[in-house]
Amino acid sequence: MERYFLGSNTKVGFDGFYDVTTEGIGSVYLIKGGAGTGKSSLIKKVLKRGEDCGLRCESWHCSGDPKSLDGVYIHDLDVAVIDATSPHAVEPKIPKIKDDIVNLLQYVVKDKLRGYKPVIEKLSNNKKECYKCGYEHLNIAFCHLSQNIRSVSSSMNSPLIVAKARGFAGDILADLRCVKNGEKKDFDTVLTLGDDGGKVCCNRGGRMVAKRFFRAISPDGIVAFDDHLKGRNVWWVKGETASVDLFLKTAFNVVLDDLADDNNLPITIFYNPLDTSLVDGFMVGDVVVASHLDDVEWAMVYDLRWYEGDFDKYALGRG
29 falls in which pLDDT band (50, 70, 90)? Predict the structure, then answer.
């Protein structure tokens, strides 16, 4: 079973891909209700039922509590059940025909809660203050990350990293047999990064690309799910954020450009949990290319650190 996050606690607060994800799904059940009304419990039961029936399922975890679920997508039925309350409120796009609302508040007995109103209000306010403080610290962390990116960018060999990424993408496409007319294309000239600065385009040729986080910033720290990567062709791209981001965006754009009209292979892009303008990796078919895979011992390594300018620390074994 694939496990991801649709949202993360970022430098600007909570950010995610709930709306864009539900748009591409055939049938969606939007679960409404406050905290403690049983949204996650209901979603977990749907997930278990789907697994018991042998269906391919994808679970979406909550960055506020990774043990809790924000949603489940049953691929074989093209059906999703999702927590549609704040901070990731989702409203029906085509009511009844595509989207249904399940309101769990109708099952809450108001009289039983009335005496706990002061306690609930206090806890709710405390939670808001804690999150506000947490986001302030994440913004400070982003300032340090930005400084690191500027420092590395000034010394890294960007043209060589771009060339390596294009060649790497060409190898991926060749392995997937995604070549035209049976001949390998010259991937060094497929894509020229222009004024977009290497930003990712996710709708080339009308092709939909799934947006996910494979790790998220939570009250438990950074939490990542990688157990479902076993059995896939996994590449761990090592290096500083600046070089890895450039490599991943370049390789992804080449792959997406080549597969723009081919919907047979699913494509997923993974975003950085602190700053969604940065990319953590991508997946095409059974090929996964990503950073921050320290615990994935079976991953093949593509090391960019030799192209970052600070050669001595790696040559001396201190990298």
Answer: very high
